């Protein structure tokens, strides 16, 4: 099976990206699963479509009402039954809205935060829940979760080299709540060490995680999503 | 604001009711909930007695069902909810959708409250929970007053409850956090890490920012103030006292700045729990 290559970029990273930065990827994941300040505005999304020759998927985190409206504006403007927009979803409100209002215009992928909720559903319930919400794909970054999603008819996008462990809304870079973002996290990763941890924690955007190695081989994985970790910049 | 207070024994329930708590909530050790078994009622008889006492005084007791459960444990949870419902249970506080649907299907007299751990961040999510049978939503810890205002003022008839942020707020989004799994023994969110510029800790709002959050919630229309369960009940009593003083300050109509200044001072003088939490930082 041919594995599709996708590149994950936040909205500010897209704005800063040099032409040709996307050459190797056939698909752009635009947005962020952990911080709503890194999700594209409708203008950003239009810019991505202009800059990137391939398809662009919209990546979304948990959404406040204001962020929800902005995401819905992108969906309204950039999707149609002929040109279905792929949306990575981590919010129940968005998942339900996509099902009730945009079912024929979008392709729904279950995000990494939401995947942890579905993994604890009784299996038969999970199957019905996913079917009811037209979920055809799941985003994963932990090989241990692969068996939990087997048999549910989902394709898997596997993310490397960052496996998320925790997420906050109190910005660790600027030390304030979400309003008034200065995008201090853009292009930076902080490495945090502690003797009781087997490996350093990485702070990327509003998520803490671990650096991972090569992706596993699994028949359900048909897409690899590369999340750039700025090399040599650990401050 | 009405106070919603966590308890884990009959005596704690009786004390809090005597002191004027408007509502109580608690878990049963045999039913999966989000705290350690030691922070829950240990026997069905004891929690049932607490439910009956609360009901007798015309107040509401809610059962915590805010942890995923499967198979036999799920059936046990439903059986407990049914039995407590007959004793006068006011509500079940639920995190996961399958359990919400199962409890709704039982047709209990008890109402259904959506746990903060369900991460209801927006009106469409709230509307969905209403469709699933909920009558109240506990707002997630890290949703700010300005962001929560549309939910608090919702037109679906759903009540909202907010945590008493002044006392406690996780550094990270609780149900989306698996830091515990890194060592299975440490609160790794409290570690002092070695970072690129020296020692580094996971940041959280400071006392004044937390007080501003309480102020904002009050002025957004929040009317139910939730106080977390604690291991040490004497500390919880102090936090309850702190919350009552804060509520009186809010009712006086002070400016945000003045309220935050006074609240910060109280934070470090009234609540031993707050002081010890701060020392750990």
Question: Helices, strands, pairings?
Answer:
The complex is a heterodimer of chains A (235) and B (281).
Chain A (H helix, E strand, L loop, with lengths): L3 E6 L1 H6 L10 E5 L10 H10 L3 E5 L5 H14 L6 E5 L2 H10 L4 E5 L1 H7 L4 H10 L2 E6 L5 H4 L5 E6 L1 E6 L22 E3 L8 E4 L2 E5 L9 E6 L9
Parallel strand pairs in A: 1-2, 1-12, 2-3, 3-4, 4-5, 5-6, 6-7, 7-12
Antiparallel strand pairs in A: 8-11, 9-10, 10-11
Chain B lengths: L1 E5 L3 H10 L3 E4 L17 H13 L3 E6 L5 H17 L3 E4 L2 H10 L4 E4 L8 H9 L4 E3 L6 H8 L6 E5 L16 H4 L9 E3 L2 E3 L6 H14 L3 E4 L5 H19 L4 H14 L2 H9 L1
Report the radius of gyration of chain A as a whole number of Å: 17 Å
- Please, what is the CATH homologous superfamily of chain A? Copper homeostasis (CutC) domain
- Into which percentage range does the β-strand content of chain B fall? 5-15%
Number of domain units of chain A: 1
Per CATH, the class of chain A reads Alpha Beta
Question: What would you say this structure looks like, in words?
Answer:
The complex is a heterodimer of chains A (235) and B (281). Chain A has 235 residues and is α/β, with parallel strands linked by helices. Chain A has one domain (4-160, 216-234): Copper homeostasis (CutC) domain (TIM Barrel, Alpha-Beta Barrel). Chain A has helices at residues 11-16, 42-51, 65-78, 92-101, 112-118, 123-132, 146-149; strands spanning 4-9, 27-31, 55-59, 85-89, 106-110, 135-140, 155-160, 162-167, 190-192, 201-204, 207-211, 221-226. Chain A has an 8-stranded parallel β-barrel, surrounded by 4 helices. Chain A has a 4-stranded antiparallel beta sheet with strand order 8-11-10-9, with no helix packed on it. The termini of chain A are far apart. The mean pLDDT of chain A is 93. With 281 residues, chain B is an alpha/beta fold. Helix content of chain B is 45%, strand content 15%. Chain B is built from 11 helices and 10 strands. Chain B has helices at 10-19, 44-56, 71-87, 97-106, 123-131, 145-152, 180-183, 207-220, 233-251, 256-269, 272-280, and strands at residues 2-6, 23-26, 60-65, 91-94, 111-114, 136-138, 159-163, 193-195, 198-200, 224-227. An 8-stranded parallel beta barrel of chain B has the order 1-2-3-4-5-6-7-10, surrounded by 6 helices. In chain B, strands 8-9 form a two-stranded antiparallel ribbon. In chain B, α1 (10-19) packs parallel to α2 (44-56), α6 packs parallel to α8 and α9 (233-251) packs antiparallel against α10 (256-269). The longest helix of chain B has 19 residues, at 233-251. Chain B is globular and about 50 Å long. The model of chain B has no long low-confidence stretch (mean pLDDT 91). At the A-B interface, α3, α4, α5, β8 and β9 of A face α5, α6, α7 and β8 of B.
């Amino acid at each position: 099976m041919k594995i599709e290559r996708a590149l994950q970029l936040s909205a500010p990273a897209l704005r800063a990206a040099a032409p040709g930065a996307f050459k190797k990827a056939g698909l752009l994941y635009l947005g962020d699963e952990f911080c709503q300040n890194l999700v594209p505005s409708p203008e950003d999304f239009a810019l991505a479509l202009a800059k990137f020759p391939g398809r662009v998927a919209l990546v979304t985190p948990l959404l406040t009402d204001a962020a929800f409206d902005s995401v819905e504006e992108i969906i309204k403007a950039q999707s149609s039954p002929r040109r279905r927009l792929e949306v990575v979803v981590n919010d129940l409100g968005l998942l339900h809205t996509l099902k009730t209002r945009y079912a024929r215009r979008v392709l729904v992928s279950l995000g990494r935060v939401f995947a942890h909720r579905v993994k604890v559903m009784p299996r038969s319930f999970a199957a019905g829940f996913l079917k009811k919400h037209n979920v055809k794909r799941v985003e994963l970054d932990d090989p241990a979760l692969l068996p939990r999603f087997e048999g549910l008819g989902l394709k898997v996008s596997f993310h490397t080299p960052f496996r998320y462990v925790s997420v906050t809304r109190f910005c660790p870079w600027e030390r304030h709540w979400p309003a008034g973002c200065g995008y201090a996290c853009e292009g930076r990763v902080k490495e945090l060490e502690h003797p009781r941890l087997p490996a350093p924690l990485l702070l990327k955007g509003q998520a803490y995680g671990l650096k991972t190695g090569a992706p596993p081989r699994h028949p359900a994985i048909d897409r690899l999503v590369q999340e750039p970790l700025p090399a040599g910049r650990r401050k | 604001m009405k106070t919603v207070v966590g308890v884990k024994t009959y005596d704690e329930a009786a004390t809090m009711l005597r002191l004027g708590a408007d509502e109580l909530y608690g878990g049963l050790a045999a039913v999966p909930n989000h705290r350690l078994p030691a922070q829950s009622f240990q026997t069905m008889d004891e929690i049932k007695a607490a439910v009956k006492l609360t009901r007798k005084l015309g107040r509401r007791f809610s059962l915590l069902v805010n942890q995923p459960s499967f198979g036999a444990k799920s059936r046990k949870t439903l059986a407990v909810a049914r039995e407590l419902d007959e004793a006068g249970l006011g509500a079940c506080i639920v995190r996961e959708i399958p359990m919400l649907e199962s409890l709704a299907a039982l047709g209990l007299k008890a109402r259904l409250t959506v746990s903060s751990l369900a991460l209801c961040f927006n009106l469409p999510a709230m509307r969905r929970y209403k469709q699933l049978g909920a009558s109240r939503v506990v707002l997630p810890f890290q949703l700010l007053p300005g962001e929560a205002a549309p939910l608090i003022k919702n037109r679906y008839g759903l009540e909202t409850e907010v945590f008493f942020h002044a006392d406690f707020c996780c550094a990270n989004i609780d149900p989306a956090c698996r830091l515990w799994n890194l060592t299975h023994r440490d609160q790794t969110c409290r570690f002092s890490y070695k970072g690129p510029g020296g020692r580094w800790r996971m940041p959280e709002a400071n006392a004044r920012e937390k007080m501003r959050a309480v102020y904002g919630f009050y002025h957004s229309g929040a009317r139910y103030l939730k106080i977390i369960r604690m291991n040490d009940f004497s500390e919880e009593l102090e936090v309850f006292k702190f919350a009552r003083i804060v509520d009186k300050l809010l009712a006086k109509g002070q400016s945000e700045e003045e309220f935050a200044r006074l609240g910060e001072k109280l934070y470090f003088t009234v609540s031993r729990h707050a002081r010890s939490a701060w020392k750990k930082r």
